[in-house]
Amino acid sequence: DVHDQNDDVGSEGGEHLPLPPVSYKTLFQFATTRDMANLLLGVIFEACAGAGFPVMIAIFGESIDQLSTACASQETDPLNQLIQFIILGGVMFVLRFASTLCLSLQQKNQIAAYRAAYMKAIVRQDIGWFDVNNPQELSTAFGDALTYIEKGLGFSAWGMLAQNAGTAIAATVIAFMYQPAVAAVSCAFLPVQIYAMMIFMATQASGIKD
Predict the structure, then answer these.
(1) Domain total for the chain?
(2) How many other CB atoms are found less than 10 A from the CB of residue 53?
(3) What are phi and psi of 16, to 5 degrees?
(4) What is the pLDDT tens value at each position of the chain, 210 positions in all?
(5) 71 and 167 housed in the same domain
(6) Model-wide pTM > 0.85
(7) Which residue range(s) make up the domain with 60?
(8) Does residue 108 share a domain with residue 193?
């Protein structure tokens, strides 16, 4: 339903209050099976693309090691390393393109469904409803709301989350493959680092509010 736009929703005494959180079920209420499939594929593709960054760093480290030993042995194969970089870069490009395409498709489809539902809700209102609601302000209010919805459905939310998750998982696996002892110590202190980061973010947020 279309709510009264003249009410100070999200404001009190002229001060703008933060918007209330919504559930994932509410956010994806207009999602079809195809949209959810595109979202899942986009997340998987972006996670695989994010995993390519630690792999690239590992290949670069091996290249540096080979160059350092080549001065003594005069034996190196730079062409092999170059081919690996080209293949990895091409795979990451294809994965990133596929991820952006899938996430954009599901986002645009759901935004179109939101717009259609909003128009239907306005059209079915009684004549008296337009006497207490300014029709010229409805499009502006709905446009502001769509901005938040697009952020929740788009690449900035799901793509970045999948990319960071893929990078973290791949980096952890590679770390245990090369230096398991150092990786184990780093993982042991990981909760302390996360807790310190949470304290820092909470302190920074409280400082901004003040």
Answers:
(1) 2
(2) 16
(3) -80, 125
(4) 444 444 444 444 444 456 677 788 888 888 899 999 999 999 999 999 999 999 988 888 877 777 666 555 555 566 777 788 889 889 999 999 999 999 999 999 999 999 888 888 888 888 777 777 777 777 777 778 788 888 888 888 898 889 999 998 999 899 898 888 888 888 888 888 788 888 887 787 676 655
(5) yes
(6) no
(7) 11-178
(8) no
